[in-house]
Amino acid sequence: KVDREYKIYKADDDAEYEAEYTIDLSEIKPTVAFPHLPENARTFDDIPEVKIDQVVIGSCTNGRIEDLRCAAEILDGKKVAKNVRCIVIPATQKVYMQAMKEGLLEIFINAGCAVSTPTCGPCLGGHMGILAKGERAVATTNRNFVGRMGHPESEVYLASPYVAAASAVTGKISQPSEVM
Q: If phi over 0 gives left and psi between -120 and 50 gives alpha, with beta otherwise, what is residue 103?
């Protein structure tokens, strides 16, 4: 909620443009950022099978209620794959409470996820879910630099909450369509 006046900026009615672009968002393919840079993104047309050890959904970056709803939509009635750890971290206490009221935390727990209170942790290799040598994680966080979530020889793949949740179910980097 914004408690102050706001101003809407728009072009003049007689504005002239050098170019106009129309983008059909339904045609944009899901992407995953491969190690070790966020801009190292690939579409699923160019992703080999990548088995994973962990999924992190949430954090301050992508732990909004909308993100948790997306993950819950995928995980509802499903189980996290054997040998995969899935950690869900709401961004704030307010989001945590809203997720609790909406039953999202129950969905995550029933799927086999560990649900944390809002905190910094695996995203920066602080605690919870620190990756060991050779482990791979899919995360909805915002960085995947060398050693970001633990051992320098671990790998972090950045993805949307939908892709992260689908990957938790299959145990490999997966599109949501593979589990829906």
A: left
